[in-house]
Amino acid sequence: MLDTKKLRAQFEARIAELLESAKEIDAELREKPSPDFEENAVEMEDDEVLESLGNVALEEIDKLRVAIQRIDNGIYGTCVECNEPISEARLAAVPHATKCMECVKD
Question: N or C: which end of the chain has fewer CB within 10 A?
């Protein structure tokens, strides 16, 4: 049996971590570029990596918020395709999963 209160708290804690990380990334991206051309080129590459990491964090936040909403609606752990339970093993691996393995394969 899933402890949805515990899961909700874990999801909220993870969202807080990701938001903090996204804030740090945003602050780094706002730093003034170096006047040195070569250094500026390296900084631009670093910025692309940081921006990508920020986007990944925001995507995870969205998925976790959907999972919290599903908990609140009493449907967390139920496949959106077939309405069958999602295995606890799958939810342990992908806590924000909305489909069972059978429906993911289809």
Answer: N
